[in-house]
Amino acid sequence: MESPYHSDVLIIGSGAAGLIAGISLAKAGLQVLVLTKDAVTESSSAYAQGGIAVPLALNDSPEKHIADTLKVGQGFAKPSAVNFYINAIKPAIQELSTWGIDFIGLENGKLQAENCLGQEAAHSARRILRVGGDLSGRSLMKSLWETACRHPNISISQGTSLLELCTNSSNEVIGGVFQDINHNIFQLYSPAVILATGGFSSIFSKSTNPYTSLGDGIVAADKLKAKIENLNFVQFHPTALDKQPLFLLSEALRGEGALLVNGHGVRFMTKYAPEDLELASRAVVSAAVWQEIKNTGAVYLDLRHLPGNFVKTRFAGIYEHCRSLGLDLAIDLAPITPAAHYTIGGISINHEAQTSLKNLWAIGEVAHSGLHGADRLASNSLLECIVSAFAASQSIQGQKQKVKFEEYKISLSPANNLSSQSGQNLKTKLWNSASFEKTEKSLNNLLAEIKQIKSQLPANLSSNFEVNEFKKQVLMSELFVLSLL
Fold first, then answer.
1. Of these residues, 126, 127, 254, 282, which one is catalytic?
2. Where residue 176 falls among pLDDT bands split at 50, 70, 90?
3. Which end of the chain is more exposed for a tag (fewer CB within 10 A), N or C?
């Protein structure tokens, strides 16, 4: 009898977490189908610049890394999760090295020179392991794309957006409902489903994330009453280049000596964090930048005192991107703004990346593992992606229970028209009322507006791709604002 399933494992999302899980499972002999809303090259992982936090230096240790992570987490990180993730990253990096990932300064799993590691804010030691240069995320993703595309057990479907998860009568996940860019809606079934859909930072008008980061996986899981935690913890990055589209200026720039000056040309972090200065936690620096923009009209990142050749070579990717916009970081001040950067909360998972729903795993930014707490230590994001991906792979390989297959029925509402301006207007309202300056009154007013918009949307899925995307944005915005109240 022909199997009703389309693959052994269905992975929704093609960032670092999704591709690492897929490659690991494929190497174990499973047939893997990876689905991605946009091109396989478009993900938050590809936008990551700093690298991966790994305690490799002689003056470093997992214990120091754990202490730094807990401190930045402000009492909300889960110690058991922090211990698990940080102690798991070294063997994970060694495994990735065997796949051909070229980590700078790492040979046969051993660090050749400690100055190969980068320094970032709130880390007590140099521990940022890079791939290919200052644009580590893109270099890492290039290697993973090439590995995934070459593996015969992996199929990749691009331009495929998740609408909802398929379940059987026991509320066990058995697949998903998807829509392609031609508005076709269809089901795909699998005995194991992994959500790797990323976060929701693009519900804000100012975001470092790709436009696809609207919380698709969180919204789909919430509809099934999955356990979701700490959606109120969104991390804002303090230094996005204030030109459209926003471009992340890595924290590693400040790690190597870049300064922050306000619209009057005055260095101001002495006022907000006199000990850590520009290397205070992201929450502290972001709030300071926001306040100084209000007070003086602008804030700039200043690298002019650093050797010009150092800036051009150490940050070659960032330097060239800025040059393409008419900005020379070696001689010009770079205008910056805070921007929504990372979703800390999400779908609750255990150390095996299992959610509260049977047959559903969640990895990377869509998940809430307990690693980060109220704020995230720089470059712990790719660490989390890598470790959770391997954890999910091992869990799926070891699973013995099978779920009952049942055909999932799709409910469609009539198509309706939607102005793309509606989505942008909502993003602006989220930024103005639910980022740095928020009150109970402003949040309640915003929630009322969101509910009004929601009431005008179709109750079921729409045959219109844009309507479904906007609906996900509205539902995610509602979940986020509710988490703040």
1. 282
2. very high
3. N
